[in-house]
Each structure stands twice: as C-alpha cells, then as structure tokens.
Structure prediction request, 473 residues.
Amino acid sequence: MKRERPVVSALQKFAEKEPLSWHVPGHKNGLLSNLPLTIKEALTYDLTELAGLDDFHHPEEAIAQAEMLLAKAYQVNRSFFLVNGSTVGNLAMIYATCKRNEKIIVQRNAHKSIFHALELVGAKAIFVAPVWDAATATAGAVPASTLHEALQLHPDAKAVVLTYPTYYGVAGEDLRLQIKMCHELGIPVLVDEAHGAHFIASDTFPSSSVQLGADVVVQSAHKTLPAMTMASFLHVNSALIDAEKINHYLRMLQSSSPSYLLLASLDDARDYIDSYLERDAAYLKDKRNQWVEGLRAIQPLQVIEVDDPLKLLLRFPGYTGFQLKEVLEAQGIYVELADPYQVLFILPLLKHGQTYPFAEARIRIKEAILNLRKIEANIIQTVASSNENTTVSTPEFSYDELEQLDKEWVPYMRAIGRVSASMLIPYPPGIPLFLPGEKITVAKLSQLEELLAVGAAFQGQHRLNEKLIYVIK
Ligand SMILES: Cc1ncc(COP(=O)(O)O)c(C=O)c1O
Prediction:
C-alpha cells in the first residue's frame, strides 16, 4: 500500500524552502521563542494557512486529501479533523441535530462535553441510565431495553447520544441492535467514541460504532492513537444527517487559526491506524498477554481485563485506587486515572517489532506494592453505585427554566430532595454525579461523601471545601 501523509508532506515541503516569516504566529518559525530547544525546534512547523498549506475551514488541497484518506480508512462518507478535541465534535454533532426545546435522548454517564452541548443548545434532555458494570465498579453501557423504553416514550426525539466504549473500556453488547432500533424510527445515533479510535485496527478490539452503523462518531485520536493532545476525528456516515450541517457548526466552533502541528499529527495518526496489520495486532496481543500474566503473579494484586484490550485495571485489596496511584507515581509509573477501587492503565497500540518497557514497569509495580503494604490501608466499603438512576428520566427543570430560578449554596448533607443547580463531576473520569435540574437523592449524597472520603477530585460549580453545593432555592 502506498503510504501518504498529505499534511505532513506539505509542511515538510514548506519548511524546506527556509521561508522568511512576515506573518503570524509571532514566534516567527520559533526564532523569538525562549522555549527549551526540543520544543522550540517543533515551532518550525507551527505554521499558518500559507500557500500550499490549504485552509482548514474550506480545505481543497492537503487537508482535503488527508480528510479523504481518513474517511477511506474508517470507511465512512465524510471525515473531519478536529483541533479542539472530541469536545468540539460532541458540541457540533448535537448542534447539528437538535434545536432549543427539542428532545434528545442521552446516555446518563456521558462526558461533560455532551452535557455542555445540551445546555448550550437548550435541548430537552431525556436521560437513559446505564447498567452498573460489576467487573469495573463503574457505570457501563445502556441496555437495549432501556433505550427501547425511551424511544417508545419519546419517538419525537431528534437524536440519541451514546458513549461507546466507556472511559474504562466497557463496550457493552448490543450497540448494533440499538442503532437499528433508532434508525427504524428515523432517529440518528451520535456516538462519543472518544476512547475507541483504534477499534478499526483489528478484530481483537470491539467493533467500532462506525462499523455498527452509527450516524456520527467522534473519536479522540489523541487518546489511543499516536496523535497529539487535542487531536480528534469526526466521522459522518448517515442517510439522516447532512455532513455539511456538521461542517457548518465545526466552522463556528473551531479556531480559525488551527495548529498545523495538530493537523500533521492527525494525518500521521490516520496513517498509523490505516497501516495497522493483523501481524501487528497479534504481536500486541502477545506482548500484552505476557505482561498481564506477569502482573497476575504479583500477589494479591488484582488485574481486571475489560472489553478493550488497551485498557487494564489494577486493584490492591484493602487499598483505594488513589493510594495505589500514589505509590506507583513514586516509582515513576503514571497511570490514566485512579478511583476509589483501582487504577486504570492505557496500553500502547504497538506495531510488530516495537518495544515498550513492560518488564521495567512490572518491576516498578512490584516495588510500589511493597511500599503500599507499609501504608495504612484506607479500606473502603463499596461506594454506592450510581445505578439508582431510573432507567428513563428527565430533569425537573429545563435549561431555560433553570436560568430563571433563584439558587443558593447549602450544606450538602441538608440537600436531600433539593434540585441541583450545577454539575458536580468527579474527575477523572468526568462523568457527572449531579446534573443541573436533577433531584439530589440520599444515594447520590452517600456516593459524594464516600468519594470525598477517599480523596476524589471534583469539577463543576461547587464549594466542597466548605461542604456546600449549589441548589435551586
Ligand atoms: C468519553 C469522553 N468523551 C469526550 C471526551 C473529551 O475528549 P477531548 O479531551 O478529546 O476533548 C473525553 C475526555 O476524556 C471522554 O472521556
């Protein structure tokens, strides 16, 4: 297969001309920058929309070719490069399908960018609750029966927004069926596949939602492909949604000065996945399995595998994930996240022959475990699962109504039965515990207390250091 990277080539060609910069950016090809040399060198390629480098919002040359190669790789009608993460893809797909006060069915354990989109659009959210995934102790996928119920109750919904897989690599089982159910009603399915850009690489991964028939799919190339942070993809493959409408919103929501480092990195990441072979997948599987076996031999470490083989959870009985993370960091092992139970590792999408310090990591993990044993265990009872959300629910108030209502700060222990005025998000993984307009229940408050007790961090509008949360008056 002939390998092409149109944006990378265009940048190289441009830089070879040793151009004199009389344009933005102000670092003048890095000349005025005081950054450390290794960073400064990359600025030679931090160019702008100059001759031969195309126009991000109206691509006709290198960017257009690169996006066409992307669409071909994922076998979809149209693909877009995103320079503001999956966040901007999630915003654009919701803007393109739903207007103020129109209904949209949304998986309750979605990323905050989805909820931000709902608020910005002023959509009428219908939440569908996921099942509790016992293996990972996290919220998993939405069962088809719950989506079916929501579709029966709200056949006038403009779209269904699902998250696949979850942050923890849980894919669920019946996405194809769910998409079919929606399409029978003429409802498009928008999938936040931020954590699944690598799924098309091989059958050793779950199927990608682009292969399962989703209308719009957003992927953080930067999460599992070798792309720079913020570099993401959006794919449109739909008889129900016009790709131009998505493009319209992307033009509004994305910068008019896109980073060419990000664009080149997206082009490179597409090439990486496009040239991923079965022998690469077999090699990765082999390396991974050996490592997992080695970890299992460290007693009593618990190794939990999930649907996505690039994700792996480690637990140490009696200790929280936060404690485990701390001792791992002391050994120079930096994981993706910790929660009350475990830490989450994201493995590299290796190709045949590439090496990664698996053996070294195992030694350090073993050392970290020895150190963990010296610390007092912070035994947690199970943090109340958030599975108490009813299967299909709507917030007590719309975004418009919420804006008009008076709000106040109250001690969270006195907030039972009140309606939340803000989002409260344990971070990571960034899935909201309370959403604006939702009733605050005993179970949710217990979950908050337990999360605070084990040292979880929170985002959103809160004053938790004073034990206060924001509610409707
Ligand atoms: C499920 C999910 N969707 C969307 C996002 C946002 O992606 P990005 O960081 O690429 O904007 C994240 C980020 O962690 C995520 O976990």
Q: What stands out?
A: The chain has three domains: 6-274, 278-372, 395-472.
